[in-house]
């Protein structure tokens, strides 16, 4: 419905489901390949401590990259799962990794990255479901214009189509991501109790 909304048609958005699994990121960082098996082992063990749970989402937002996301309402158990994963595996990360370009100019996210190898952990954790992506790459000036217009169009869309979505989180997974944090290859998935 959003991708077909006439107010949003000018923004050249495409669904990402065909190429990327729908997911909520718990911890986004880089690991040396030599740590892959150990990382999978840690996450498998952690997954046995967690149970399936329900999340709720209420509104859409646009990222500075042009991706459209459904924001997840704050949920203590989801925060606990994310925090537990970070605490358990951050020591395996690549300490020489570069901060993602989308987070490099935010002081809070930069500090989180320096400490944990991720811009979105603990108090900076902002769970969401990404489902629309730009169809093309624009110049910085054109992108900034489009993002501002997209943000306004999404605000109008949210007002016209208020909704609450519920979903059950039933697994945790490990994957390889692209530059924007979208999963391009799943390495392991573990069902929650």
UniProtKB/TrEMBL annotation:
Pfam families: 2_5_RNA_ligase2 (PF13563). InterPro entries: Cyclic_Pdiesterase. Gene3D superfamilies: Cyclic phosphodiesterase. This is Phosphonate metabolism protein. It comes from Legionella busanensis. The lineage of its organism: Bacteria, Pseudomonadati, Pseudomonadota, Gammaproteobacteria, Legionellales.
């Amino acid at each position: 419905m959003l991708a077909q909304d006439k107010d949003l048609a000018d923004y050249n958005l495409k669904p990402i489901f065909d190429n990327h699994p729908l997911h909520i990121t718990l911890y986004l960082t880089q690991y040396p390949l030599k740590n892959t098996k150990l990382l999978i082992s840690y996450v498998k063990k952690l997954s046995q401590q967690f149970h399936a749970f329900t999340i709720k989402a209420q509104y859409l937002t646009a990222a500075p990259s042009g991706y459209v996301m459904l924001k997840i309402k704050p949920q203590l158990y989801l925060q606990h799962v994310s925090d537990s994963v970070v605490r358990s595996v951050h020591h395996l990360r690549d300490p020489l990794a570069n901060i993602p370009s989308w987070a490099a100019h935010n002081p809070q996210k930069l500090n989180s990255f320096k400490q944990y190898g991720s811009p979105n952990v603990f108090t900076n954790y902002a769970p969401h479901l990404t489902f629309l992506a730009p169809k093309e790459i624009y110049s910085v000036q054109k992108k900034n214009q489009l993002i501002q217009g997209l943000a306004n169009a999404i605000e109008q869309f949210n007002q016209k189509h208020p909704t609450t979505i519920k979903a059950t989180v039933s697994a945790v997974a490990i994957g390889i991501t692209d530059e924007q944090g979208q999963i391009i290859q799943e390495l392991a998935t573990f069902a929650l109790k």
